[in-house]
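thoughts on both lines:
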Amino acid sequence: MQFAWNAGLVIVAGAGNDNSTNLFYPAAFDHVISVGAFDEDHRRATFSNYGTGVDISAPGNVILSAYPMAACLPSTAPGDIGCYNWLSGTSMATPHVSGAAALVWSRADVTSNQQVVDIILNSADPQGVDAVRLDSWTIHGGLNLHDAMSFGVTNLPPVANAGPDQTVPDSGSDGVELITLNGGASSDSDGSILAYEWREGTSVLALEASPSIFLTVGVHTLTLQVTDDRGATGTDTVVISVRGNTPPTANAGADQTVTDGDGNGVETVTLDGSASSDSDGSIPSYEWSEGAAVLTTGVSPFVSFAVGTHTLTLRVTDDQGATGTDTVVVTVNARPNTPPTANAGADQTVTDGDGNGVETVTLNGGASSDIDGSIVRYEWREGSTVLATIAAPAVTLMVGTHTLTLTVTDNNEATGSDTVVVTVNPFAASSTHVGDLDSSASGNKSAWTARVTITVHDTIHQIVAGAVVSGTWSGGATGTGTCTTGAGGTCSIVSASLRKRDNTATFTVSGITAAGLSYSVNQNHEPDGDSTGTAITIAKP
């Protein structure tokens, strides 16, 4: 979050839907606008988090989202909203604030993410209907885009730049030297600088950007104060040294951090005082010490240090006996334990093979590794639920998408994590068949009629509506017949009138047609045993 903020981004996040004052991340991070949700009555939505962890609120109850419906059928019903769902949550409130931030940033007078955040929060509306506090459950109140678009921009103070430190000789040997100061690099990002003031202590020395002034031999710390066109100020200091004999400048080099490479408790470090200098002479002596103990002499000596932090002082002496000092911090770290690398394997997509809503998947963390030890524990989780504690477990997952986290622990208790996404697709039926054949007969003295009722199933014996069944009559009846199954998966076919001498009639299913499904005659079956599953014979009543 800090990296994004430093890059100039405005970050907005939902405060959470726990109906609590608990901090919710990433909304609770610094530089993130935390958004709660209010309802259509401008009251806190019952699910929204609240309290000092929530910066601002926005509409978040029953919001038309961009989340598609599971099924999308044309409709002319009043209020039809097409293929998208109405959703509630602080995630629905957050886009209102994000959009408002984009509009605020479009203002010509807004130039930074800090200004955007200040305007959004400081223009929030703390009053609701009947002068009742709109959302005392947030820090700032409810989003007010109208006020935000006209809210005054925070004035950024000017940046004073007193120029680099200077060391100059007393060229006339008269105890004073004319020095030209330089505050011209001072700036104001959102306005202009109207006034410059140079001081030493409480004494005002000059009122220009780059004045020339006399300073006595010695070291002078000058303060430049600049004032912008809105009255804001900024300060900077510069050190001016006017020397007779200028002392040498010690430079002990940059701080160093090294590691005990062989684990023996010490490490050899090369010190570097070569950048030390004397502007009006030479440096014949270098001395390195830690506390009161002198460690060594020389410009760039080798010194062995124990594991820990060491503050060293370099004292240099010039050819006139003047000295200068500098410090350097040398940190020797113990050889670290490298954390293990978790490898949860490649993402997997499987299908519920038997339609029972779950499928067993074998996970694979065997490629996890530890370069300086061994892995002693494996833990697979989905959210906060632990699923298994071995490298390659077989786990049963419901239809849907599962993000699993593998955490491995090495023999020094360091951990590493990796995730794998397992998608379990729902069962997809591929064929139809006859699930049941039933019959009935009716008649009078001269003729009778046979009726057959067909039940159609899919691969896992679920009823199929809208299937077209066709078949042929034989025995006493002749011809063909078709019917289409209804919501219950059944339909009936009636024979033509049969003669009294016709003792039986047989109906044989010749085909079933259903969208996306083939007909599998080998799966035809008869639960109550009164047919072959494909053909049924009806006796004269």
Notes: The chain has four helices and 35 strands.
